[in-house]
Please model this.
Amino acid sequence: MIKFLDLQEINISHQAEIEERLLRTFRSGWYLLGNEVRTFEKNLATYTGAKYAIGVANGLDALRLILRAYLELGIMQKGDEIIVPANTYIASVLAISDNGLVPVFVEPSLENYNIDISKIEEKVTSRTRGIMIVHLYGRAVFSEDLAAIATKLGLKLIEDNAQAIGAEWNGIKTGNLGDASGFSFYPGKNLGALGDAGAITTNDEELATTIRTLANYGSKEKYVNMYQGLNSRLDEIQAAVLDVKLQYIDTDNQRRRVIAKRYIDEIKNPDIILPHGPDDETEHVWHLFVIRCERRTLLQNHLTENGIQTLIHYPIPPHQQQAYQQFNHLSLPITELIHDQVLSLPISPVLTDSEVELVIDGCNTF
Ligand SMILES: *Cc1c(COP(=O)(O)O)cnc(C)c1O
Model:
């Protein structure tokens, strides 16, 4: 069976280095907000080019904390609207609604599955305070137009960078394109921890300080609480692992690009709609390789019978979830079509050439 994602293989490929850092952390006797977190934060900031990086407990918290900080700073008020792509993973939307803000869904482009930038402005109202862009499936979404809209209308540009660490737009890394960015290091992400972990990057010093304080019980000085904060800290152990793996992220992403290119060049089945690679390959880090097929269930069954595990990202869009009944009446046809047809093929830095060939054959024999 070709696994969709072989996490054991991915982590074992760095076993010696990871074990050494884990042992060092274990023996240090210091398990939260210490040297490992500081080192990783510094290296993540350097990697993305952003001035500040703050480690937190997970990717959802990273996004929640950014918006919470904007509320505490008076830049946003409860009831304000945040624009978000309708086909994103639920976490982007949860971060908005959890803060008493209102998600306003914008349809994606079928060309690249990212938010259709040309449809943003028509959704702006007097309550709009931000745009959350999501670099979905690992593909960076940005444009001069988008930056101009945000500047003109005074909107904060928040990146959900859970899926696209290492991607670039015009030589600028995701995580350094907007006003603030949330990262997830969930084990299955391109940079994955051995458990939950996340981070925020920003160039805004006041925002960085507020987020750091909020994530630590709203406290800068022990037992003195400025805000009704939360406990969302990155563990030393996770930071140690992430700091090792960060060194390999570009190599890992490059291997994903090679696999994606082979899929695009060699899958030749008229029933399968392949993703379009960007002209500039650095824009995509291929967190997921997502194809579309009208007969998705049959294709998935065919691949399973051929020993290939696939997944659906995602089967139900946020506006159709039971959790968001207030949005169930919305009609978002492009988003709904995507959710009916998408299927993700295996892609990872440890997928071998012969496995890649089997996936290609599996698709071509459907
Ligand atoms: C994974 C993911 C998140 C949430 O990250 P967690 O670490 O699982 O909380 C947010 N947004 C997107 C697009 C994701 O893929």
Summary: Residues 260 and 289 are 7 Å apart (CA to CA). The longest helix spans residues 249-266.
